Amino acid sequence: MTAPNPRLSSVLSPGHRALITGASGGIGESFARLLAARGLDLVLVARSEGKLRALATELSAAHGIRAEVLATDLSRPDAPRQLHAACEARGLPVDLLINNAGFGSLGPFDANPFEREHEQVMLNVTALMDLTHLFLPAMLARGTGGIINVASIAGYQPVPYMAVYAATKAFVLSFTEALWGETRERGVRVLALCPGPVETGFFDVVGTRDAAVGIMATPEDVAAAGLRGLEQGRASVIPGWRNRIQSSLPRIFSRTLTVRVAARMMKPRGPTAPKLAPGAAPARR
Ligand SMILES: NC(=O)c1ccc[n+]([C@@H]2O[C@H](COP(=O)([O-])OP(=O)(O)OC[C@H]3O[C@@H](n4cnc5c(N)ncnc54)[C@H](OP(=O)(O)O)[C@@H]3O)[C@@H](O)[C@H]2O)c1
After folding, report:
1. Were both Cys, which of 6, 156, 190, 201 would link to 179 (CB 3.0–4.6 Å)?
2. Whether 165 is catalytic
């Protein structure tokens, strides 16, 4: 295991600032609570401005930190640049960027709504890459900083009937591990956090828990595992031993076999299967 990097550890200490996307609930909210308790100032980002404001007020009062709210829809192409510009205009340098906002869709690719699949790539991939590109240079110039990109165990293999979601998470995993290799000796560490199923609002967006397999982790445990992994200077973290085994199966068996097994497991059943609501997504992530 890589030894903690003292300069990086300082990013997680009081007085530094973390920007968290998808902070209005689930894993992002847990990151916000853990970091506020450690004395970090926060920039909270999501679409639900009311939830973000309530969280900012609560955490500022509880921990004496400064918490800013920048509500935006990150699936819009211009949103990352506007978010970065807003941070610059308000004098909010970001020491830790947590690209967490994301969602999944379930169903045959050809039957899923065009707009929903497009939005998924814009949020899970394009916004994450754009924000990394916008905030990383200042971290490198300061010689310190951290980025956590939330991927998924779905990023380790193709997943039929959630083809776009798994592909977006494969991008996040590959992109993040590559950046880890580029930046690890320049004072900045990047980490891919790859959870299995987590008890969050993800399933409300999905519209079903039928496909949930395995033991659900809590968002608190997953966020804590991400912060530990960052402190240890790791390239990626898969919380939970069952998830670590599952993610290694494509390396043990042939890729086509794991895809065929996944297709059987994920195939929507019943007469309503082709009519899944936009954004409906499975729980095997
Ligand atoms: N839960 C799991 O089982 C699981 C497993 C592996 C990976 N993940 C990943 O973990 C990350 C967090 O998900 P979660 O489980 O915490 O789900 P969640 O509770 O649904 O949280 C998703 C967050 O993303 C925000 N968001 C969604 N669309 C957005 C948009 N267009 N612009 C800005 N913010 C947006 C949501 O806020 P608003 O709706 O207010 O915008 C919310 O804060 C995602 O990347 C997901 O893929 C989750």
Report:
1. 190
2. yes
Distance 128 CA to ligand 1 centre (A): 12
**Annotated active-site residue in 31, 103, 156, 165:** 165
Q: Which CATH number fits domain 6-275: 3.30.1360.40, 1.10.10.10, 1.10.1200.10, 3.40.50.720?
A: 3.40.50.720
Question: Residues 196, 246: contact at Cβ < 8 Å?
Answer: yes
The answer to whether the CB of 64 falls within 8 A of the CB of 108 is: no
Distance, in Å, from the CA atom of 271 to the CA atom of 81, rounded to the nearest integer, reads 43
Query: Taking a C-beta distance cutoff of 8 angstroms, is the pair 147, 179 a contact?
Result: yes
Q: How far is the CA of 121 from the centre of ligand 1 (A)?
A: 13
| Span from the CA of 47 to the centroid of ligand 1 (angstroms) | 11
Q: Which residues line ligand 1 (CB under 6 A)?
A: 21-28, 46-48, 73-75, 100-103, 123, 150, 152, 195, 197-198, 200-202, 205, 219, 285
pLDDT at 272 exceeding the cut of 70: no
For the whole prediction, is pTM greater than 0.90?
yes
Residue position matching structure tokens 């200042």: 138
Average pLDDT over residues 237-266: 92
Domain extents for the chain?
6-275
Question: Which residue's CA lies nearest to atom 42 of ligand 1?
Answer: 22
